[in-house]
Amino acid sequence: LGFVLAFLGWIGIIISTAMPQWKMASYAGDNIVTAQALYEGLWMSCAMQSTGQIQCKVYDSLLKLESSLQATRALMVAAILLGLVAVFVAVTGMKCMKCMEDDQVKKMRMAVFGGVIFIIAGLAALVATSWYGNRVARAFYDPFTPVNTRFEFGSALFIGWAAASLAMLGGAFLCCSCPRRETSYPPTRGYPKNAPSTGKDYV
Prior knowledge:
With 203 residues, this protein is α+β, with helices and mostly antiparallel strands. It has a domain of 130 residues: Up-down Bundle (Butyryl-CoA Dehydrogenase, subunit A, domain 3). Helix content is 56%, strand content 11%. The protein contains 5 helices and 5 strands; from the N terminus they run αββββααβαα. Strands 4-3-2-1-5 form a 5-stranded antiparallel beta sheet. Strand 2 and strand 3 form a beta hairpin. The longest helix is centred in the middle third of the chain and has 38 residues. This is Claudin. It holds the Pfam family PMP22_Claudin.
C-alpha cells in the first residue's frame, strides 16, 4: 500500500510539473477580456480563446525568469528525480522481487530507504508548490497589483499538493511497515522456557 501511494504521488508530481495551470487569471474586474482563460506555469504561458483554441508560448530565456520561478522549477525537477530513485530502491526491497532474496534484512532496509527518499521528494514538491502558491496569494492581495493582472491558484497547484501528500504518506508507510515485520520476534514468545516449569519434576 505504501509503495502504491508513493508511486501515485510521484506520478502526480510529474503531471503537476508539466501542467501550465499553476496560476490562472482572475477576472475580478469589470473589463471584458477576449480570452476565456489565461494560464501560467513553470515552462509556458497559455491562453484559451472563447472559440476553444489554446495558444501556448514557452518562456524565451531561462535568465529572464524570476529567481523564485527558477527555484520552483529546480525543486520540482529534484522531486521527480528523487522519486525515480525511490521507485527503483523501493522496488528492490519489495518481497515480490527476487533481488536480494538471500538477505531479507537488507531487503527490508532497501524498502525503508526508498520510503525515506519518497518523503524527501514529497517535501521538495510541497515546498515548491507552497512557495509558488504563497507568491500568487501575496500578489493577489497586494493593493498595488492591477485588478486585470491578478492571478488565482491553478489546478496544477492542487494536484501538486495532493501528490506531495501522497508521496510523503506512502513513504511513511514504507518506513513504518517494514521495521514491524523485522521486529515481530516470533521465537521469543517463551513457550520453550516455560516447558521445564510445568510441574512434571514434582510428580
